[in-house]
Amino acid sequence: MCNLRQDKHSLANVDAVRVSHIDLTLAADFERRALHGHVALTSSLISPTNTFVLDSKALVVHRATVDGVDASFRHVDDAVFGTALHVTLPALALGVPFTARIYYETTPESTAVQWLPKEQTADKTHPYLFTQCQAIHARSLLPCQDCPLASSTYSAAITVPSWATCLVSAVARADPVTTGDVTTFSYHQAIAVPSYLIAIVIGALESREIGPRSRVWCEPSLVDAAAYEFAQTESFLQHAEAIMNQAYV
């Protein structure tokens, strides 16, 4: 493995701390154009340090804890790459897992999160949210190690208005739960991925099955056209599996 400190586009100390799992718990507020909640980072030290440094940008951080105990934190701004979030760690042994939890919210300036008013959608009935984390915008969605070599599994529980469907670049792990006027969607990604592959979409969506393991989602007025456009998805998957001699997962 190359020296992770050579990634000049990240402010995180990936040479000292390894994140193995990200657990997102967020709620969408379309009126304020904000996602708010917390992220839990299951991590361990790979070299001695008393500080966990994470990438962030255009986030409001309210609180940090390490293994359930409040931890001090500070921000160090960078003119180009956002803000380094420095979380103070207690004395920790190398390789022993700990959980850092950051309570925060996004802002309208968070470049990864795109909020569309209903007038900008096809059906013009409800607003729409989608994220675009590539290449280094994940830091404006959540505090993280925002570089390709820092891959981890992740889970997400996203609470949205009851009219909306939330999709994530992961596998649904439970049926949606509706309480009053909100619904919570839960997902889990068991394959370790870099931060730029975390993706969220929230909107008035419908789906069509386009194969034995594929489904396309879109606004109701466009979903049939989308299904037609992606009708060959299963064929693409089968050809890729044959070339790679590897089942798609």
Automatic annotation (TrEMBL):
<feature type="domain" description="Aminopeptidase N-like N-terminal">
    <location>
        <begin position="21"/>
        <end position="197"/>
    </location>
</feature>
<protein>
    <recommendedName>
        <fullName>Aminopeptidase N-like N-terminal domain-containing protein</fullName>
    </recommendedName>
</protein>
<dbReference type="GO" id="GO:0005829">
    <property type="term" value="C:cytosol"/>
</dbReference>
<dbReference type="InterPro" id="IPR045357">
    <property type="entry name" value="Aminopeptidase_N-like_N"/>
</dbReference>
<dbReference type="InterPro" id="IPR042097">
    <property type="entry name" value="Aminopeptidase_N-like_N_sf"/>
</dbReference>
<dbReference type="InterPro" id="IPR034015">
    <property type="entry name" value="M1_LTA4H"/>
</dbReference>
<dbReference type="Pfam" id="PF17900">
    <property type="entry name" value="Peptidase_M1_N"/>
</dbReference>
